[in-house]
Structures are given as C-alpha cells and as structure tokens.
C-alpha cells in the first residue's frame, strides 16, 4: 500500500516496523553465525559430548523457528510497493528457477543438511564433499537458487518489507560463504582446494 496522504504518525509507525524487521534479520544472522561457529561447538561438545549428534537438528529447528517469526512479522506489517506490476512475470520465472534449483539441492543432501542423519544414528556423521550434479557448475548451487527465489519473490510482491528480507538473506549469505569455505578446506583439505580452483563459487562460467 502507498503512503499518499497518509498521516505523518502513520508513516513513522510503518518506518519503525520496517526498521524492526531489518533489526530482526541482523539478529537472525548474528545468532545463526554464533551457533554455527566451530569454536562454540568445540567448547560445547568438549563439556557435553553426548549433545554432538543432536546439535545440527536442534540448530536447524531453531533457525526455522526464528525464520518463521521473521516472515510472520514481515507479512503482518503494512508496506509500500516499490515496483510496478510489470515486473511480476519476470519474478515468476526467476523465482520458479530458483525454487527448482533449491529443491534439487535439498533432495540431494536433506538428511545431512537437516542433521537427521546424525540424529537417527545417534552419532556425528562425517560431512561429504559433493561435487557431482549441479555442483559441477557452481560450488554453492543452493545459495544461487535461494538468491533467484527471494529476488524473484520480490519482483512478484515488490513490497519494501520483501525487499528488506531479500537484501538481508542475500547479504548475509554472501558474507558467510568465505567462512563456510574455510571450514570446508579444514574438512576436505586438498580435495576442496582443487574443486575450488576448478568450479566457480556462484555463477556458472557460461554466464561470465
């Protein structure tokens, strides 16, 4: 909805709600990073090693719960439109392509990504280096699909609140990738270094 003729108080109320949404995404990124850090997990598992097989699943549940709370707030607040409806068709195409890529990746490593494999076995399952399928073209196809999906969704429903969500998801992921890759180098050593030299991070070479 637009702000034409809206009272000043209403404008500032909506502005505060959008700032709160942005702050919520900052907090989400902060806690997501802290809980995923190797230092925290080493300290926690050193004192309570029995928690190790269940940590990933609990971490994923926490992430989904906080993500759901943010999306609930985003849908609840009134927000101005930023783009005309003419962008909607492009958004459907981009979002559908992103969703297909995301589903392909999640199906491939759902059990390990969700922590269910460790949960079912009651022991920590060693990570696997996946370089087949879409991973032959980009190192992080799930993130590429996520970017396409959230920005496609923004083109379909181009509200400021959706723009904030798309921006923070994109920015946080881009900032987090180098730390994730450093962990992958620790886990897989020369194999991942070789893979990183051969395959681009996010954009297939045909697009460069």
TrEMBL record:
GO terms for cellular component: endomembrane system. InterPro entries: Phopholipid_MeTrfase. It comes from the Bacteria. The keyword Manganese does not apply. Its main location: membrane. Pfam families: PEMT. Signal peptide: none annotated. It is a multi-pass membrane protein. Keywords: Membrane, Methyltransferase, Transferase, Transmembrane, Transmembrane helix. It is found in: Endomembrane system. The keyword Membrane applies. GO terms for molecular function: methyltransferase activity. GO terms for biological process: methylation. The chain crosses the membrane at residues 18-36, 57-75, 87-110, 142-169. This is Isoprenylcysteine carboxylmethyltransferase family protein.
């Amino acid at each position: 909805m637009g702000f034409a003729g809206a009272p000043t108080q209403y404008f500032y109320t909506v502005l505060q709600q959008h700032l709160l949404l942005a702050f919520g995404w900052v907090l989400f990124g902060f806690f997501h990073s802290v809980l995923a850090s190797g230092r925290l997990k080493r300290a926690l598992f050193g004192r309570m090693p029995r928690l190790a097989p269940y940590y990933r699943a609990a971490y994923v549940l926490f992430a989904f719960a906080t993500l759901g709370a943010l999306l609930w707030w985003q849908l609840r607040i009134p927000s101005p439109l930023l783009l005309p409806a003419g962008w909607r068709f492009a958004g459907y195409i981009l979002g559908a392509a992103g969703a297909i890529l995301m589903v392909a990746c999640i199906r491939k490593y759902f059990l390990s990504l969700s922590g269910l494999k460790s949960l079912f076995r009651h022991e920590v399952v060693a990570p696997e280096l996946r370089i087949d399928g879409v991973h032959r073209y980009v190192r992080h196809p799930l993130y590429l699909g996520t970017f396409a999906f959230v920005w496609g969704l923004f083109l379909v429903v181009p509200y400021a609140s959706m723009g904030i969500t798309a921006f923070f998801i994109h920015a946080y992921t881009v900032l987090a990738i180098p730390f994730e890759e450093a962990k992958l180098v620790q886990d897989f050593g020369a194999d991942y270094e070789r893979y990183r030299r051969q395959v681009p991070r996010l954009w297939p070479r045909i697009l460069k």
